[in-house]
Write a structure and sequence with these properties.
By secondary structure, the chain is mainly β. It contains no helices and 20 strands.
């Protein structure tokens, strides 16, 4: 509860606190219940609290209403925290203010009446138009065409629910399990992507006809494989 004296008038406003804990899971919610955050152990290095304020308490010249601020715009978490807005719409995403001026869309999912994302920082948050394709889970799709000669396209997903720091790698192996070529190394950006393989190894040498495997791995332990056929 915030209380201020303005002349003969007493103004009261409700504000919320997120009590972050170093060694346990923690939560915080705005007074109106529309905005919430949660963090796992390791998100903060010591127990501390972050204020949660809605735009009704912002300065009169603040041009982005229906926003919320968590703490300040400078704190970085040790692990990304969960950020949620209550909404039934699936065409909206969560935005975080960047550099105190512009707004950056965060990869977001709509689930069970909430819009969900991860954030590595505190700051101002609001809803805006969704423009990023955001898979739920990390996966790799069957290449196309298949069989192929000499180029094939591989689509893969880096899913939001599997975290922001997955370090995705995509590698080609032959039927004996021998390394042929690394196509992607330590990619973190959430979204849906494609990469092509031209049927050559790391040294630019064409590979022979046969069965090959494309493998997606992450540092979090996800392993996905697809079988491909190269024809000459």
């Amino acid at each position: 509860l915030a209380i201020a004296d303005v002349g003969d008038t007493v103004i009261t406003e409700l504000i919320a606190l997120a009590a972050a804990r170093e060694a346990s899971r923690w939560f915080g919610r705005s007074v109106d219940g529309r905005f919430s955050v949660a963090g796992d152990p390791g998100a903060v290095s010591y127990d501390q609290s972050f204020i949660i304020v809605d735009s009704s308490l912002f300065a009169d010249d603040f041009n982005d209403q229906a926003s919320y601020v968590l703490g300040d715009e400078f704190f970085e978490f040790g692990k990304p925290i969960e950020v949620r807005f209550g909404s039934q719409r699936n065409d909206l995403a969560i935005y975080r203010r960047k550099n105190g001026v512009t707004w950056e869309e965060l990869p977001s999912l709509s689930k069970e009446g909430e819009i969900f994302t991860f954030s590595e920082k505190t700051g101002y948050f609001k809803l805006g138009p969704k423009t990023i394709i955001v898979p739920e889970e990390t996966n790799i799709h069957q290449n196309y065409p298949n069989p192929f000669n000499p180029i094939t396209t591989i689509m893969y997903d880096i899913g939001l629910m599997d975290g922001l720091r997955q370090n995705v790698s995509i590698t080609i192996y032959n039927l004996l399990g021998q390394h042929v070529k690394t196509l992607i190394h330590d990619k973190d950006q959430v979204g849906q992507f494609t990469v092509q393989w031209n049927g050559q190894n790391e040294f630019g040498q064409p590979m022979s006809t046969g069965v090959y495997f494309v493998q997606l791995t992450t540092k979090t332990g996800i392993v996905k494989n697809k079988k491909m056929m190269l024809l000459k």
